[in-house]
Design a protein that fits this description.
UDP-n-acetylglucosamine1-carboxyvinyl-transferase, Chain, 3-phosphoshikimate 1-carboxyvinyltransferase activity, aromatic amino acid biosynthesis, alpha/beta, 4-stranded mixed sheet, globular, 27% strand, 30% helix, amino-acid biosynthesis, EC 2.5.1.19, transferase
Length: 430
């Protein structure tokens, strides 16, 4: 396990950067390109460990995928060209790969075995396995298919009208992808709209999909056709630098070409709610996804209550929002975020433990946390818990301390942001 000592003489961030490609979109581009007939070219692909797990999964099923840095070329014969893999498929640490891939495999007339690392093996898969069983898939694994390793015997599915019991784009996407390989119309009706990258991209590949409010319908067994996908910068990665600039004196940064999908821009709304000076400019649309440049400068944030429908739009950003709240005036309350307990780690527990070690006054609740503001953080020994979002939060927190912060297991940050520390040092050195 590696460790990094974080001690910065200069705390001000200035300059312009771009962040790596969106992780959610990179995953889906590889998946849909592998299901489509013809050639798919993906640019600004996130070459992080999770997305590479998706590439390797489809290569094991016979798809030709070639990657050169952040460009990926896929040549596929479509669904009928997929093969039954000889070996079990290693998903690494990627929950997105696991849940979406299970949906795809459920529609294929083969047998598959899936496994992952220790962290992924603790994350619940029954939330996607249960609706797929209703459609006719045979899925089994540890604890009756709740945990990896999981075996899937697919094919011969029936459509379903599904109402997800929890707010999760992964569950929605997994059911839609199974519906893509099923005769008839599959419907997913959400209570609150979650990330819609799957719907947007399926349309780009030619799927017969209809979206009305929070209801999505997909007609199965329609051929997908390869296309070019340009992946926008990941707003979840950008969030760490947006907060860093907001809470460090004299900072002023611009992050260019960031994805601005409305289901993902909750971090911008929260920063505005908390009185952070933030502007979004140069908006444009590429491949059905909005992108733009985001500028943030140092501010005095104010406490707020974060709850309800905005939670699915900020679920990956809550760790760094909690850090922001330690510097806000007043008490910040985060509610309705119980899904955090089922991420790479229990993010409520890990955020509370980590920030407490650094001097924050923070209390965990069943579905969120309560954070006191105007807190002077100090140095200490921390660990990422193998969670990239926690690791990046710690790095940003070290900008607020006079003493050094020791971060154990920093290599997990490469899961979503391989060049994170390079970009951090660039913004500090300007």
């Amino acid at each position: 396990m590696s460790q990094k000592v974080l001690a910065f003489e200069k705390k001000t961030l200035t300059g312009n950067i771009t962040v790596p490609g969106d992780k959610s979109i990179s995953h889906r581009a590889v998946m849909f390109g592998s299901l489509a007939e013809g050639t798919t070219k993906i640019t600004n692909f996130l070459a992080g460990e999770d997305c590479l797990s998706t590439i390797e999964a489809f290569q094991s099923m016979g798809v030709f995928i070639q990657r050169e840095e952040n460009t990926v070329l896929i040549e596929s014969e479509g669904v009928n060209g997929l093969e039954e893999p000889v070996q079990p498929i290693d998903l690494g640490n990627s929950g997105t790969t696991a849940r979406l891939l299970i949906g795809i495999l459920a529609g294929l007339p083969y047998h598959f075995t899936l496994y992952g690392d220790d962290s992924l093996s603790k994350r619940p898969m029954d939330r996607i396995a249960n609706p797929l069983r209703e459609m006719g898939a045979k899925i089994d694994g540890r604890e009756n298919g709740r945990l990896l390793p999981i075996a899937v015997r697919g094919g011969h599915l029936s459509p379903i009208d599904f109402k997800p019991p929890i707010k999760s784009a992964q569950i929605k996407s997994g059911v839609l992808l199974a519906g893509l390989l099923t005769d008839g119309v599959t419907t997913v009706e959400e209570k609150t709209k979650t990330r819609d990258h799957t719907e947007n991209m399926l349309q780009a590949f030619g799927a017969d999909i209809d979206v009305e409010g929070t209801t999505v319908k997909i007609t199965g067994n329609k051929k997908l056709t390869g296309c070019d996908i340009e992946v926008p910068g990941d707003i979840s990665s950008a969030a760490f630098f947006l907060v860093a600039a907001a809470i460090t004196k004299g900072s002023h940064i611009t992050i260019e070409n960031v994805g601005l999908n409305p289901t993902r821009t909750g971090i911008i709304d929260v920063l505005k709610m908390m009185n952070v000076s933030i502007k979004v400019v140069a908006k444009r649309t590429i491949g059905g996804e909005s992108i733009g440049d985001i500028t943030v400068q140092a501010s005095q944030p104010k406490a707020t209550v974060i709850e309800g429908d905005i939670i699915p739009r900020i679920i990956d950003e809550i760790p760094v929002i909690a850090l922001l709240a330690t510097q806000a005036t007043g008490q910040t309350v985060i509610k309705d975020a119980e899904e955090l307990r089922f991420k790479e780690t229990d993010r409520i527990e890990s955020v509370v433990n980590t920030l407490s070690k650094l001097g924050a006054t923070i209390t965990g609740t069943k579905d969120g946390m309560i954070i006191e503001g105007n807190t002077q953080l100090h140095g200490g020994v921390t660990e990422s818990y193998g969670d990239h979002r926690i690791g990046m939060m710690i790095a940003v927190a070290s900008l607020l301390t006079d003493e050094k912060v020791e971060l154990h297991d920093d290599e997990c940050i490469a899961i979503s942001y391989p060049t994170f520390f390079e970009d951090l040092h660039y913004l500090i050195s300007n």
